[in-house]
């Protein structure tokens, strides 16, 4: 009987570990029946029949005690479904392509192959050729525009300084107009010559636009190169993944769109580069003209003050 009770306890422990209460109840019933059947088949049948009532009471007592212990354990331990105790693999952050190997693409293989890739590469080369023909870079254009902006701001300060000086000098001479009529007339003509404030404002606005467009052209050019590289890389990845069970194929339409986007970015960059490089040259000429007028005004004012 001790061995049977030990066996029963082991089975109950296994059921507790599996956290399946229904299975535990079923197991108790089955063990009880087997326990009684085994005793009935004992060789000493007469002795067992004589003490059957006593043995049954002992068995009922043992099973009742075990059932009470199981109930107490159930009250202490919170039973959880197995899928809550052990989280699934997907909750650990693993991707579906767990066995997918990383594909390394050599830079030497990043060569345009498809029609769209070749068109994008041609547009990028057109930008490079223009920069090469004028022996310049985007950074140089941006630097020139910044320099022109600084010179224009200084020119603006000089302009308003000379305008104020002419006004003050004319107001001083007007107090004795008859004696200084000649100088007053010269100052009036000088004021008319200095009516270039609108031109100066236009120049300042133009320089800001030129600077912004050069920065934009540089951005589109860099983006065109990056996007084309991405399109070629994804195409090569598709080729490398062919024949593998676990593989993630890049959409062919996406690759075409990337190449088209690269070409358009390069074309936008080229258009901005050619258009605003000419505007930069024109702005420099306009700046020199305004500077010359201000220098003449300064010289004329100095001669009148003598």
Automatic annotation (TrEMBL):
Xref: Pfam families: BBH37
Entry keywords, A to Z: Coiled coil, Plasmid, Signal
Coiled coil: 273-300
Signal sequence, start to end: 1-23
UniProt keyword Coiled coil, yes or no: yes
The BBH37-like helical domain, residue ranges: 110-303
UniProt cross-references to InterPro entries, sorted A to Z: BBH37-like (IPR058057), BBH37-like_helical (IPR057717)
Protein name per the record: BBH37-like helical domain-containing protein
Organism whose genome encodes this protein: Borrelia crocidurae DOU
């Amino acid at each position: 009987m001790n061995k049977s009770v030990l066996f029963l306890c082991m089975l109950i422990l296994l059921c507790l570990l599996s956290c399946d209460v229904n299975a535990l109840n079923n197991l108790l019933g089955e063990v009880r029946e087997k326990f009684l059947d085994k005793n009935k088949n004992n060789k000493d049948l007469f002795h067992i029949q004589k003490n059957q009532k006593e043995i049954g009471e002992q068995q009922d007592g043992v099973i009742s005690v075990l059932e009470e212990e199981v109930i107490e354990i159930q009250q202490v331990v919170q039973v959880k479904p197995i899928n809550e105790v052990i989280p699934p693999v997907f909750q650990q952050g693993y991707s579906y392509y767990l066995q997918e190997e990383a594909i390394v693409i050599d830079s030497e293989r990043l060569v345009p192959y498809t029609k769209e890739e070749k068109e994008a590469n041609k547009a990028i080369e057109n930008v490079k050729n223009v920069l090469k023909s004028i022996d310049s870079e985007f950074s140089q254009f941006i630097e020139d525009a910044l320099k022109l902006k600084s010179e224009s701001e200084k020119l603006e300060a000089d302009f308003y300084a000379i305008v104020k000086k002419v006004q003050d000098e004319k107001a001083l001479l007007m107090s004795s107009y008859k004696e200084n009529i000649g100088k007053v007339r010269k100052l009036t003509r000088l004021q008319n010559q200095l009516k270039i404030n609108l031109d100066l404002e236009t120049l300042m606005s133009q320089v800001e636009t030129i600077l912004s467009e050069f920065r934009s052209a540089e951005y589109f050019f860099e983006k065109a190169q990056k996007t084309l590289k991405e399109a070629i890389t994804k195409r090569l990845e598709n080729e490398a993944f062919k024949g593998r069970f676990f593989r993630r194929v890049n959409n062919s339409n996406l690759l075409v769109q990337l190449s088209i986007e690269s070409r358009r970015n390069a074309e936008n960059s080229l258009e901005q580069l050619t258009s605003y490089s000419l505007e930069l040259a024109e702005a420099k000429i306009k700046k020199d003209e305004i500077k010359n007028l201000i220098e003449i005004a300064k010289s004329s004012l100095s001669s009148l003050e003598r």
